[in-house]
C-alpha cells in the first residue's frame, strides 16, 4: 500500500513546483519585487490547502504543521528568479517553449494530486459523507491557490475564464467520491488523480472551452 | 410561531435568487465562461454566510451542512444562462427593465432576510451579547457575498461605492439587536428585515448616496 | 513589567491611527463614499489581526472581543474625513508633507507593534514552538490589513511591490522568535518592535527596494 503514498507524494511535489512557478511568473510579469515573487509563488502552491483547512477548522492549517511544500515552493521560486535574472534570454525562444510544455504537464499532475489530497483531508476530518463538502474541498485544494494568486495580482481568476481548468478538478473530485465506495480507496485515489490529469491535458491540447453567454469566445488564445 | 420561519424562508429564497442572478450577470458582462458564471452566481448567494460561519468557527459552514441555497442558486444561474444564451434579445428593451425592477425588489428582500439570519446565527452560537460581533455577522451575511463577487470579478466592491446599500443592512442589524430585547424575537426579526427592505428600496428610488470626501459624486448613474 | 505593556499599547495605538488613515486615504483617492472610507480604514487597522485569529482558530477574533482598536480607527477615519471634506486645501502643500512625515513614522511604529503582537498571540495560543507559524502570524498581523485594503480597493497590494515593507516585519518577526529564548520576553518584544521601526524608516528614507527579475525598477517613485 505504501507505494500509493509515495506516488502521491511525487505527484504533489511536481504540482508544487508547477504551481509555485506559475505564481512566480505572474509576479514577474507584473514587475513585482523579490518578496512579491516569493509570496505569489508560495501562495499559489499552498493557498488552496490553506483555504481548505480553514473551511473545516483544521487548525493550524497543515502547511504550518508540516511546511515541506512551503520550502519546496520557496526553493522553486528562488531558482526560477535567479535563472531569469541572470539569463533573461533563457525565457525566449526554444527554452521557453520547452519550459511551458513541462510546466503544463506538471501543472496538470498537481491539479490531479491536489484534488484527491483535498478529498482525503475531508475524509480524515470525518466529512467523507458530506459529499458536497468533500468535493468542494478537493476542488478548492486544486484551484484555490491559483485563485488567491490572481486576486492578489489583481487579475480576473484564470480558473474562471478558460480552458476547462476547474472542470477537470470537479469531474475528478466527483468520481473519487463515488468510486471510493466501490473499489479500494487508494486505487480510486490514483485513478481519479490520473483522470484529472488526462482531462486537463486534453482540454489544453484541444482548447476545450465552456460556453459563454454571448455564444462566442472573445479571447481565443 | 411557525409562520415566522416560513416567511423567513420565502424571503431568503427570494434573496438567493436575486443574489445568484446578480453574480451571474457580473460574470456574463465580464465574458466569463459557464463555470465562471456558476461560481460567481453561487458565491454571491452563499458567500456572505460562509464568511460569517468561518468568523465564528461554525464548522463546516452551514452551506455545506444544508446545501439547499447552493442548489437554488445553481438552478437560478443555469436558467438565466440558458435564457440569455438562446434568447439574447430578451435582455434588451422592456423585458430587461422589468427584470431589473423585479431583481431590485428581490435583492432588497434578500438583504433584509440575510441580515437577520446572520444575527440569528450569532445568537444561536452564543454570541448574542457581543453586540458588535452580532451586527457584523448580520451585515457580512447580507453584503459579504456581493463583496466576494466583486473581488473575484476584479472590480471595486459595489457595496463600498454606492446607493447606501450596506447602510440599510447596518441600520437593520443594529435595530434587530436592540429591538429583540424589547419585543418577542420573531417579531423583531421580521420587523427589522422589513426595515432593511424599505430603506434599501427608498435608497435606490431616490438615489440616496453617502457623502464623499471630495464633496461631489463623480459617478451619478 | 507593566511598563512594557503600556508602551506596547501606545505603539499599537499609533499604528492603528496610521493604518486607519492609510485605508481612508486609499478610499478617498478611489472616490468611495463615507461607508467605503470607514470600511477600508477599519479593515486596514484590524484586518491583519482578523486573518491571524481565523488562521489559528482564535474564535471570535479578538477585534470582536475587545473592539477598542475598531473604535480608535473609526474615530480616526471620521476625523480625517471631516478635515478633508471641510478643509480640502489642508491636504495640499506644507500640511500634506507634514502629515505624510508623521504618518510614515506612525506607520512604521504600527508595523513593529503589530508584528510582535501577532507573535505574542501565537505564543499565547500555544504555538510558540511552531516557529514558521509564529513568524507568519506576526507578519500577517503587520501587513495583512494593508493587503485586504488593496485587494478591496482593487489594486496590486502595495506590500508586494515596494520599499522593503514586509521585509522589515519578517526580519523583526524572526529576530523576536529567536531572541525571546535568549533574553526576557518583554525586552525581546520591545527590541524587535524597535528593530522593525528602524528598518522600515531606513528603507523609506534610502528607498531600499528588493531586486526585480527584470533587473530594473520600473516604478521608482
UniProtKB/TrEMBL annotation, chains A, B, C:
The keyword Transmembrane applies. The chain crosses the membrane at residues 6-27, 34-56, 68-84, 105-126, 132-151, 163-179, 185-203. Residues 10-83, 105-180 form the Glycine transporter domain. This is Uncharacterized membrane protein YeiH. Keywords: Cell membrane, Membrane, Transmembrane, Transmembrane helix. InterPro entries: Gly_transporter. GO terms for cellular component: plasma membrane. It is found in: Cell membrane. Belongs to the UPF0126 family. It comes from the Bacteria. It is a multi-pass membrane protein. Pfam families: Gly_transporter (PF03458). Signal peptide: none annotated. PANTHER family: INNER MEMBRANE PROTEIN (PTHR30506), UPF0126 INNER MEMBRANE PROTEIN YADS-RELATED (PTHR30506:SF3).
Amino acid at each position: 500500500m505504501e507505494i500509493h503514498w509515495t506516488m502521491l507524494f511525487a505527484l504533489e511535489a511536481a504540482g508544487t513546483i508547477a504551481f509555485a512557478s506559475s505564481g512566480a511568473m505572474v509576479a514577474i510579469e507584473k514587475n513585482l519585487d523579490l518578496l512579491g515573487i516569493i509570496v505569489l509563488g508560495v501562495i499559489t502552491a499552498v493557498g488552496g490547502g490553506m483555504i481548505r483547512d480553514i473551511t473545516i477548522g483544521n487548525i493550524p492549517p497543515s502547511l504550518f504543521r508540516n511546511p515541506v511544500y512551503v520550502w519546496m515552493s520557496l526553493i522553486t521560486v528562488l531558482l526560477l528568479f535567479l535563472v531569469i535574472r541572470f539569463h533573461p534570454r533563457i525565457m525566449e525562444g526554444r527554452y521557453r517553449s520547452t519550459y511551458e510544455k513541462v510546466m503544463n504537464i506538471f501543472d496538470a499532475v498537481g491539479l490531479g494530486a491536489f484534488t484527491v489530497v483535498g478529498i482525503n483531508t475531508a475524509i480524515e476530518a470525518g466529512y467523507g459523507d458530506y459529499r458536497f463538502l468533500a468535493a468542494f474541498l478537493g476542488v478548492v485544494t486544486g484551484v484555490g491557490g491559483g485563485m488567491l494568486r490572481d486576486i492578489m495580482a489583481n487579475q480576473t481568476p484564470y480558473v474562471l475564464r478558460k480552458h476547462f481548468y476547474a472542470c477537470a478538478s470537479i469531474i475528478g473530485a466527483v468520481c473519487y467520491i463515488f468510486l471510493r465506495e466501490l473499489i479500494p480507496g487508494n486505487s480510486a485515489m490514483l485513478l481519479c488523480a490520473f483522470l484529472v490529469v488526462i482531462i486537463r491535458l486534453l482540454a489544453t491540447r484541444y482548447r476545450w472551452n465552456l460556453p459563454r453567454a454571448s455564444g462566442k469566445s472573445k479571447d481565443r488564445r
